[in-house]
């Protein structure tokens, strides 16, 4: 009995659905049975996730969720214990520390885009407080989302500057929170690259929203202003031209591909989540610039619909995501230019045959 | 004692690797103590970590452990910082 239970657990977490599908049609019922049950349970869990997502929109535990952010910025004081010392609360006066103020404003700008463009009330759509810590560790060249809050390093000043400088970097981290509360894309392989791409897409959209730029006016760079002066590069990633953001003696060359032909197979970086995100990033750029105007309106709306709609599986591959964007464009805007722009954007990165759903 | 560190992931997704030999250093005893503590609390296989978090692969005389931000012990953090000559 124990061995049976264990084997089911292994089936559930490791074997990809397409393999389970094949196994479920196996002649041996001992093989087919558990695979079929796992598929059924997987489908059930997806339905549950969809219900949770839909309920999230109308959740009113303590009255209507606020349309105002609830931000708290902490100073980690160059240590690694989180969150650190409280520096600025919602509505509080500006701090003497510019990193604190930038984080406060960056979180506000991100909250505003999600609210104004998509009607989303914070990360969980139920008014979740937004917490961030600045001055994490010493000379720390990174920023991350720890599952509950945003964390920003100061950079070493040699290669990287303060991670609170670019608003798109702060919005990128907060979007990891939105993804966690919605599609919860697994941070590995193609689903991980999609998770990264969601953060770059909405990170860039927050910046464009702040600057009041149209798709044609935007630079589509991620992390501009983050690299120290001596580094040869403009940013960390380019959605417009993946692979061209930097080429430097110390940093090396931007490794991002822009099309499926150059997809990078690697075990590092959780299977290249920060590398292959260049492909869906570029698809979004192509769709947004083909449509023109404010990128957060139609292109952003379609991407947001897919991220939060409940049909995006946590282990989704690029093609799955692409198919859902085509369907979302159709259901929201009909058979017009949006549908065409999305199809052509994916074709532009080498993802084709998206006409019929379920065909791969 | 040879200590090598490979750092992957992070917001930038840029890989860093460095190695040092404690026999060439005046702080060899201290580094050996850190190394001992670091492998004690590391995992044998890499986990997925948190979004944009750094992953570290620490190898000490052929034995490799995996750790990921933000869950590094003080010893692991000091060791990584010393070997990579970069903030951790």
Please describe what this structure looks like.
The complex is a heterodimer of chains A (360) and B (88). By secondary structure, chain A is an alpha/beta fold. Chain A has three domains: 1-34, no CATH class; 71-165, Roll (Elastase, domain 1), CATH 3.10.170; 189-348, Neutral Protease, domain 2. Chain A is built from eleven helices and nine strands. Chain A has helices spanning 2-14, 17-24, 29-58, 98-118, 167-181, 189-211, 268-272, 278-291, 298-308, 318-333, 337-348, and strands at 71-75, 85-89, 130-136, 143-145, 150-153, 221-222, 237-238, 247-248, 252-253. In chain A, strand 4 (143-145) and strand 5 form a beta hairpin. In chain A, helix 4 crosses helix 5 and helix 5 (167-181) packs across helix 6 (189-211). The radius of gyration of chain A is 21 Å and the shape is globular. The two termini of chain A are 38 Å apart. In chain B, strand 1 (2-9) and strand 2 (16-21) form a beta hairpin. Chain B has one domain (2-84). The model of chain B has no long low-confidence stretch (mean pLDDT 93). Chain B has a four-stranded antiparallel sheet, with helices on one face. Chain B is globular and about 35 Å long. Chain B has helices spanning 28-40, 74-84; strands at 2-9, 16-21, 54-60, 63-68. At the A-B interface, strand 4, helix 5, helix 6 and helix 7 of A face loops of B.
């Amino acid at each position: 009995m124990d061995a049976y239970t264990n084997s089911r657990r292994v089936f559930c977490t490791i074997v990809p659905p397409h393999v389970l599908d094949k196994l479920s049609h196996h002649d041996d019922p001992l093989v087919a049975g558990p695979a079929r049950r796992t598929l059924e349970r997987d489908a059930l869990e997806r339905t549950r996730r969809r219900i949770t997502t839909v309920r999230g929109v109308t959740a009113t535990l303590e009255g209507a969720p606020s349309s105002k952010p609830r931000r708290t910025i902490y100073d980690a004081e160059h240590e690694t214990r989180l969150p650190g010392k409280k520096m600025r609360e919602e509505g509080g006066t500006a701090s003497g520390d510019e990193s604190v103020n930038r984080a406060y404003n960056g979180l506000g700008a991100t909250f505003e885009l999600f609210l104004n463009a998509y009607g989303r009330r914070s990360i969980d759509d139920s008014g979740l407080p937004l917490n961030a810590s600045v001055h994490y560790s010493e000379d720390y060249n990174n920023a991350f989302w720890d599952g509950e809050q945003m964390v920003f390093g100061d950079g070493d000043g040699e290669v990287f500057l303060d991670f609170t400088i670019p608003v798109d970097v702060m919005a990128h981290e907060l979007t990891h929170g939105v993804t966690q509360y919605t599609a919860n894309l697994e941070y590995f392989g193609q689903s991980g690259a999609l998770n990264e791409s969601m953060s770059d897409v909405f990170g860039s959209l927050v910046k464009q929203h702040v600057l009041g730029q149209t798709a044609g006016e935007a630079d589509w760079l991620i992390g501009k202003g983050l690299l120290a002066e001596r580094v040869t590069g403009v940013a960390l990633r380019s959605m417009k031209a993946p692979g061209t953001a930097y080429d430097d003696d110390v940093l090396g060359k931007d490794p991002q591909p822009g099309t499926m032909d150059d997809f990078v197979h690697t075990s590092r970086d959780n299977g290249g989540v920060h590398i292959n995100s260049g492909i869906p990033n570029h698809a979004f750029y192509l769709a947004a610039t083909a449509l023109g105007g404010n990128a957060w309106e139609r292109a952003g709306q379609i991407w947001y619909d897919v991220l939060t709609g409940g049909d995006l599986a946590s282990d989704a591959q690029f093609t799955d995501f692409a198919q859902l964007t085509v369907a979302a464009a159709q259901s929201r805007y009909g058979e017009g230019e949006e549908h065409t722009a999305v199809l052509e954007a994916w074709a532009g990165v080498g993802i084709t045959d998206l006409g019929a759903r379920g065909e791969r | 004692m040879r200590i090598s560190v490979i750092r992957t992931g992070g917001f930038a997704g840029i890989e860093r690797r460095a190695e040092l030999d404690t026999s060439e250093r005046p702080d060899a005893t201290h580094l050996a103590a850190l190394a001992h503590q670091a492998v004690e609390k590391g995992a044998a296989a890499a986990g997925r970590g948190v979004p944009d978090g750094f992953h570290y692969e620490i190898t000490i005389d052929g034995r490799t452990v995996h750790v990921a931000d933000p869950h590094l012990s003080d010893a692991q953090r000091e060791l990584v910082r010393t070997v990579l000559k970069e903030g951790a």
